[in-house]
Write a structure and sequence with these properties.
single chain; 344 residues; alpha/beta; D-Maltodextrin-Binding Protein, domain 2; two-stranded parallel ribbon; 13 helices; globular; disordered N terminus
Length: 344
C-alpha cells in the first residue's frame, strides 16, 4: 500500500512539473526580441519578385515579408516593429546562427543537412513549390531531354544546383551550369541569351517571364525537377520560438479556413461563432499564455496582416501583378496541401 501511495505521489509530482513547464513559456529568442522591441527578419539582396521586393524608397513587400510582419505582430503587437535585413542565399545560415536575424523566411526549404549538420529547425510548410526550367522558345525545346548539351542558369547557394544535376543524370542529359548569386544578374544572363535554360523555383520563372512581358518568347518546360516545402527556419534549441512560428502560420491558415479576414475580424470578435473562435480571437483567455504572448496576438495578426489567402492574393495572386493560382499552396479543403494546427 505504501509503495502504491508513493507511486501515485511521484506521478502527481511528475504531472505537476510537466504542467509547470508548459506554463513557463518564453524562450531566449522571444525574450531577446521583446527586449529589443524589433524583430530582425530576412529580406533579399535585390528583388525576389512576389516574395521579397524593395522599392526605390526602401519599402519592402512580398509574401515572405508579410510573413515576417505576421511574426512581428504576434510577438510585439505591431507589424511595423520589424527590421528587414537584406541577405544573400549563402548568408542565411551564418546570419541566423550569429543572432543577426531572429528567423529566416526567405523561400527556404527544410532539408536533412540543414537540420542535422547546420543545427536548424523548421516550421510547417507555408508554400509548396516545384522546381521548373524555362527555355527560349526559338530553341524548340519541348522537354529537358531535348536540351542535351545546353547551358542552364542556376541560382548559387541553393538546393536547385543539386536538383538540376540529379534530374539531368536521371534522364541522361548533360547540361552546362552557369551559377550566379543575385537574381537580377541571373535573369539578365538568361534573357540576354547567355544561357539556353533558366532553372528556378516554379513561381520565380513564371513571374520573371511575366515581368519581362515576354510570355510568348519563353516556354516553361513540363519537367518537374523536384518539389520543395518552403518553411520558416530557426536555430535549434529554442522550442518556444519554433512554436511561435508554427502557431503564427496556423493562425493565418485557421483564419482563412474559418472565414475570418482583416475586414470582418471585429465583427467576428464581437459575436464569435464558436468557443474555438472566441479563444482564437482572445475573447476567451488562453491562446497566448502557453506561448509567452498576449491573448490578442492572433487577433492582432489577422487585423494587421490578414489571413493567408489575403497575404497570397496581394503578393502573388489576383491582387498582384503576377496573377498566380494557388495550386498546391491552397487550403486542404480547396484541393491544396496547407492546413492549420488545431486551436483548442
Amino acid at each position: 500500500m505504501k509503495a502504491m501511495k508513493w507511486g501515485v505521489a511521484v506521478l502527481a509530482l511528475g504531472l505537476a512539473n510537466i504542467t509547470a513547464s508548459a506554463q513557463a513559456a518564453g524562450g531566449k529568442t522571444l525574450e531577446a526580441v521583446k527586449a529589443r522591441g524589433v524583430l530582425n527578419c530576412t529580406g533579399h539582396d535585390g528583388s525576389y519578385l512576389g516574395f521579397a521586393e524593395v522599392d526605390d524608397k526602401g519599402n519592402w513587400k512580398g509574401i515572405d515579408i508579410d510573413l515576417c510582419r505576421a511574426v512581428a505582430t504576434a510577438v510585439l503587437g505591431d507589424p511595423s516593429k520589424l527590421k528587414i535585413i537584406p541577405i544573400s542565399w549563402a548568408q542565411r545560415w551564418p546570419e541566423l546562427q550569429s543572432g543577426n536575424v531572429d528567423i529566416v523566411i526567405k523561400a527556404s526549404g527544410g532539408t536533412l543537412s540543414r537540420d542535422t549538420e547546420l543545427g536548424l529547425q523548421f516550421s510547417m510548410s507555408y508554400y509548396l513549390g516545384t522546381t521548373k526550367v524555362m527555355a527560349h522558345k526559338e530553341l524548340n525545346v519541348a522537354s529537358l531531354k531535348d536540351a542535351d548539351g545546353g547551358s542552364v542558369c542556376i541560382p548559387a547557394g541553393t538546393t536547385i544546383e543539386q536538383q538540376v544535376a540529379g534530374y539531368a543524370a536521371r534522364i541522361g542529359v548533360k547540361l552546362e551550369p552557369v551559377v550566379i548569386e543575385k537574381t537580377e544578374e541571373l535573369e539578365q544572363a538568361y534573357f540576354s541569351k547567355r544561357c539556353d535554360l533558366y532553372a528556378q523555383w516554379g513561381p520565380v520563372v513564371a513571374i520573371a517571364r511575366a515581368a519581362k512581358g515576354q510570355v510568348n518568347d519563353h516556354v516553361i518546360l513540363p519537367d518537374v525537377l523536384d518539389v520543395e516545402p518552403e518553411v520558416f527556419i530557426m536555430r535549434q534549441g529554442d522550442d518556444n520560438w519554433v512554436d511561435i512560428a508554427n502557431w503564427t502560420l496556423s493562425a493565418l491558415l485557421f483564419a482563412e479556413q474559418s472565414g475570418i479576414n482583416s475586414n470582418n475580424i471585429d465583427e467576428m470578435k464581437a459575436k464569435p461563432a464558436s468557443s474555438q473562435i472566441s479563444k482564437f480571437l482572445g475573447v476567451t483567455p488562453g491562446v497566448g499564455k502557453g506561448l509567452g504572448l498576449s491573448d490578442d496576438w492572433a487577433y492582432n495578426v489577422i487585423k494587421n496582416v490578414g489571413n493567408y489567402g489575403e497575404v497570397f492574393d496581394r503578393n502573388l495572386g489576383a491582387g498582384s501583378p503576377y496573377k498566380m493560382d494557388r495550386e498546391l499552396t491552397d487550403l486542404w479543403s480547396n484541393g491544396g496541401v496547407l492546413y492549420p494546427l488545431v486551436f483548442d
